[in-house]
Design goal:
This protein is an alpha/beta fold. It is built from nine helices and nine strands. Strands 1-2-3-4-5-6-7-8 form an eight-stranded mixed beta barrel, surrounded by four helices. Helix 6 links the parallel strand 5 and strand 6. It starts with a helix and ends in a 10-residue tail after the last strand.
Length: about 240
């Protein structure tokens, strides 16, 4: 059976895209845990500019194009660990057929499915939670890791966690910024860490910009961190992370 028609029509989304990569590091052993693929325009357009062109008609094709582009660049750049790819929760029409294009691209570039993380962005309101749960379970059945991105920012995080426990949870940068000086944020994150430990979920802190915040997160039990403190995203390249934070 072929791929989903909504996903496979490359002509629906008109703008040419590429990928930037940003590392997620482990501050304890100073290794790279994963690289996140972030969409950019081939003309230098930012992610927000590209996303402004996504609508209800072209979102399926755009989401599939991002997955395939990320995998193609991973095949060229050979990141040493996991590859993290964002996906739009409302852009998967059929869990099985929409995944076929991703699986085919991974095979084409010799990238194991077990080294892929799919991040569902919590900032987009989920139109059909039941469908999203089917999609996430389909990914897991293929050996693909799952993550909730921007947790704490907006819509469905706790409801989604009640029904599906992802492999990873990424704390929103608004919770992270200034945590070393904010006892309220530390209390929230301390309890989130405890909850995730009980659910068997690893936490990633994103948006880490200062050494003090990094140390505070480490003390709270979050060694997996991502942010400008370690490396800025680099287009079509793997930036070297700074481990002297």
């Amino acid at each position: 059976m072929g791929t989903c028609e909504r996903c496979s029509d490359k002509n629906v989304f008109q703008r040419a895209i590429t990928m930037a990569f940003q590392p997620i590091i482990n501050v304890i052993d100073k290794t790279t845990f994963a690289h996140e693929a972030l969409v950019r325009g081939q003309d230098g357009a930012s992610a927000s500019d590209i996303l402004s062109s996504v609508d209800a008609v072209n979102r399926f094709a755009f989401d599939q194009l991002c997955r395939i582009t990320a995998l193609e660049w991973a095949g060229r750049l050979k990141p040493p660990a996991l590859l993290s790819i964002n996906f739009m929760p409302n852009a998967v029409y059929d869990a099985y057929h929409c995944l076929l294009g991703t699986v085919a691209a991974a095979k084409r570039v010799d990238w194991p499915l077990s080294r892929i993380i799919f991040e569902v962005n919590e900032q987009e309101a989920v139109a059909d939670l039941d469908r999203l749960l089917i999609v996430l379970k389909a990914y897991r059945a293929q050996g693909i890791l799952t993550a909730i991105d921007d947790f704490g920012a907006a819509y469905s995080g706790l409801n989604l966690l009640a029904d599906f426990q992802p492999d990873l949870l990424k704390l929103d940068l608004a919770l992270i910024k200034g945590i070393s000086l904010d006892k309220n944020r530390r209390a929230i994150i301390r309890h989130t860490v405890s909850m995730c430990d009980e659910l068997g979920i690893k936490i990633i802190a994103e948006g880490v910009e200062t050494a003090d915040d990094s140390l505070a997160l480490h003390d709270l039990g979050i060694p997996l961190q991502q942010g400008y403190l370690f490396a800025r995203p680099q287009v079509e390249a793997l930036p070297l992370p700074h481990f002297n934070a």
